Amino acid sequence: LGTGFGIDQFSGTIGGAFTMGSLTGNENERPVRTVTVSNFRIQKSEVTRRQWQAVMGASWTNPGAAGCNDLDCPVSGVSYAEVTAFLSRLNDQIPGLNFRLPTEAEWEYAARAGGTGDYGNRTATSAGTLDEMGWWSGNSAGRARPVGSKTITNHFGLYDMTGNVDEWVSDWLAFYDPAALNNPTGPSSGTARILRGGSWGSSAFASRVSFRYWVPATEAPVSGGFRLVRNP
Predict the structure, then answer these.
(1) How far apart are CA 156 and CA 114, in angstroms?
(2) Mean pLDDT across the stretch 44-60?
(3) Cβ-based neighbours of 122, under 8 Å, separated by 6 or more
(4) How far apart are CA 81 and CA 97, in angstroms?
């Protein structure tokens, strides 16, 4: 896990319809509506320091997430612009697979894994608890952990969709468009980009799979990491 960019690092092909948003969360998590996303594959883990260094080389160093500095730790403290540079280099090195960030809709579909609970489904029928699924402020002791340290994945085989590091997605910040129901991508421009999933320092409320966090695209939040999507 977290080594190379082969098919073994990604989920099986997923996609379909799901209920996006929350009636009990913040106003920007509404309206709750049924959204459809086309088939895609998403990385099983957050991008690791090992993967970052393999693409960016010694000239692009990254300190890793707070208190987590080995090569299996997730990349953290990167801006959206730095992630864009990583994606450009990766696609030059491995052409044809269209590595990119997930959209918000793809990310939430993958995080929910067929469920409607706050923290996603660990099986086809059972929602996971926050402590089972992720590292958050209540169990992290103030630091991130190597990817996959939680041995329970969600139903799609994904680790750390809740907690560990916040994950950049491709959408600009905006309220949801209630008419955008098929592969929504958000507005075409803006000033802030979205991160999802919560981090080692997040509250239970901010760790919910519907929670939206944003910063200016030029800033590098200390908890900001990412995971990849590729063509099915």
Answers:
(1) 9
(2) 89
(3) 113, 128, 132, 133, 152, 153, 154, 155
(4) 21
Q: Three-class SS of residue 34?
A: strand
Burial 3-26 (b: 16+ CB within 10 A, else e): eebeeebbbeebbeebebbbeebe
pTM of the predicted model as reported, rounded to 2 decimal places: 0.97
User: What confidence tens digit (pLDDT) does each residue in 101-131 have?
Assistant: 999 999 999 999 999 999 999 999 999 999 9
**Each residue of 28-45: b (16+ CB within 10 Å) or e?**
ebbebeebebeebbbbbb
What tens digit of pLDDT does each residue of 141-188 get?
A: 999 999 999 989 999 999 999 999 999 999 999 999 999 999 999 999
Alpha-helical runs (H) found in 74-129: 80-93, 104-112
d(CA 111, CA 159): 9
Tokens representing residue 86 in the block: 């990583």
β-strand pairing of 229-230 with 33-42: antiparallel
Closest CA to 231 of 80, 3, 2, 15: 15
CA-CA distance, 152 to 11, in Å (whole number)? Answer: 15
